[in-house]
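Appendix B. One record, verbatim.
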Amino acid sequence: MNKEHKTRDEILYSLKNSNYSLIIIGGGVIGASIALKSSKAGISTLLLEKHDFSYGASSRTCKMLTANYNDFNIKNTLSTYKKIKERNKVANKASAIDLEIVQPIYEAESAKVFQYILKSNVYDLFSLFSNRKKSKFLTRNSTINTLGDINSTAIISGIEYSESSIDDSRYVLELLMKAKKYGADVLNYAEVKAFDYNENNINSVVFLDRVSGRIYEVPADNIIIACGAWGKNLASTLPYGNFDNTAEYVKATNLIINANIAHIDKSLFLPKIKNRPNIFFNKWKNTIVIGPVVRKYNGDLDCIYSASDEIEYLIDIYNTYFTSIVNKNHITTTQSGMMPVDPNDIKIHTHKNYKLYMVEGGDFTLSDKTANMALSKVYANIDFNDNDKILKNNIDMDIEWVLSEETIHFLYKYYSSYDLLLRLNEYCKNDSSLLLSIGLDDRIPCGLIKYFIEFEDAVHLDDIMIRRLRFILTEDDCGTLISEYIANEMSNYLGWDSKREEWEIKRYRTEIKRARVSLY
């Protein structure tokens, strides 16, 4: 079923006559996965997200699909096997590229070399029928050569194994694009404020459209809360909404540096330090994501940023293990988000009186499984399992390209898929003005900005800079310079006056400062 694209205004206008079978609250990877599966099954679906899609943890991950090789041991063999299956499934859906990761082995672990080799072989065996690269044992020299500036004093060998790399927010946006095609209505900047309920039923979901300031009430047969750490507060507004045995969430912080600073050819996992999580160095696009630092957080969930001591800890780790020195001046930005303490512990809570369900746990690797579990709880007689591609990294037809070579090369290399490229190329075919470059940047045509607004519902400048172009992470200046040109282009399409345009630029620069405040 392929539905005609509906604009935000059209969705809002139609709400007065709508009665959805399912309302999903939360526009991250779990909510988006649920929306795609439910709409594909013919269930009338509305998704509501308080901020922009993928605003929270789903744009602040480590950018990898992982079955947690480093935590694999004989006690969790079955759960690791199951998670590898889920990793392979989501990696196939996302056409995710293999991420080769090196774990150096140090003198203190010399007695465990055979154990590491055995573990990596079993890890490979669990992916026997996938096309994933096999792990291999590295000599001391191979390990050192691969990791460039690493302090080689105590290294005796290494293990190279494979996970998958993913652009987190791009995957969420593609899930939602597919859900729209199957008829789902999705709204960002739609903040659920309350539920209208009586003793037996929830009559409607009450939400604020944060763009227009209007309040809407929408009835639904079923409601799924899929907004992670935010879910408990929302559910608690209902009688008996304080569910038992809820998941614990923690704040995870990463820092991002330019890949040219650390001379490593592949991604890297470092050994555990006491009870802290493994520290990873993930080569992603033209950056290296380093982290995480994990700690409890009881602050404002809408305002999660790194702290100075978290960043200093990660810098200390870098400077301990590498001969090149990094300080705060080398850091492009930081990112912090909430994550479940145990993503494998997926919980689907059911309200005792109402057809309301709250999803907890899961992560990108387990997103497909989590969505299946949630929907099966609501619609027990429908099979939601599928292996449909969300992103494609090959083209099986001849294309008449109108986009420039610079744009094609940039977008394919940047997103590792052709989906956005093909839609953008088709969008620009009948209007040559859309092919003009933004400012002096030949990578980005005007049509891309208009496309983000019209089809991916970008409302603010930071929606494009942070979650669509990802320039806050990948540009040395966080995209500060080009953001002014993009804001001007958005003004042309959205009718902003000069004051609104200045406000949007200031809003984005404030977001940059907040992400970097721990560096000062």
